[in-house]
Hints:
Blueprint: E1 8-11, H1 17-28, E2 32-37, H2 40-52, E3 57-61, H3 67-81, E4 86-89, E5 95-96, H4 104-131, E6 135-140, H5 153-175, E7 180-187, E8 190-191, E9 199-200, H6 206-216, E10 219-220, H7 221-233, E11 238-241, H8 243-255, H9 259-268
Parallel strand pairs: 1-2, 1-4, 2-3, 4-6, 5-9, 6-7, 7-11, 8-10
Amino acid sequence: MKNFDDKVAVITGAGAGIGRSLAVALANEGARLALSGRRESTVAETAELCERAGAKARAYRLDVTDRQAVYDHAEEVLADFGRVNLVVNNAGVSMTSGVDETTWDDLEWIMGINFWGVVHGTKAFLPHVIASGDGYIANVSSMFGLAACPTQSAYNASKFAVKGFTDALRQEMRMEGRPVGVSCVHPGMIKTGIARKARAGASRDVDELADNFERLARTSADRAAKHILRGIRKERSKILVGPDAYMIDLMPRVLGSGYQRVITASMRRQPA
């Protein structure tokens, strides 16, 4: 997929952050947009921004944890747009909590959105993406889908799972000669509101954690979107976004399991 002109792009989690920036960037390149999120009002705002850029865009309310709803959404998008070329399974949430304080509800919540949301979106749209003859699926993991971090066990689990699922999908598409490119996206800390909407263990303060995240985040959502679209054009299997993502990717490859000692030591020097 060397260009996005007249391509039909589906983006989950499009109401803010990376999802919104991706939608606007694609609109500026001539794509047609099927945008979804849990809050249709914020997704409608994104769709309006895309329409100002001259693109056809439609907002949908969607809970990616609801398998049947995602399958119904895929059929609705096909009816509205006639085909599907690009799917970006972007919807995601964050949580900071030690293993001992993470509840079963927390685990089901984060896996339902971060992992099962990606699986639902991939399986529901894959037949349509294949049928387009020029298709692409980009699943959003994280830099913490490349290396583990204390207090991020549930988030790590969800994002490592996205990486494994996506890597296997890419191999299958190539092995079967399907006209579908596949990328796994690994953003670092991006300047979005995700930390403000996160969950935290009972002993932790969400606002304090969000303040710390926002001090460390250096990459804007718009810049992240440009990196992702560049990676899709080049059909990169792994799209790293931000200097911190490149660093986290490098550490396990250079240090092996020793990277864990480095991360643990760095975590001791900053708020948990």
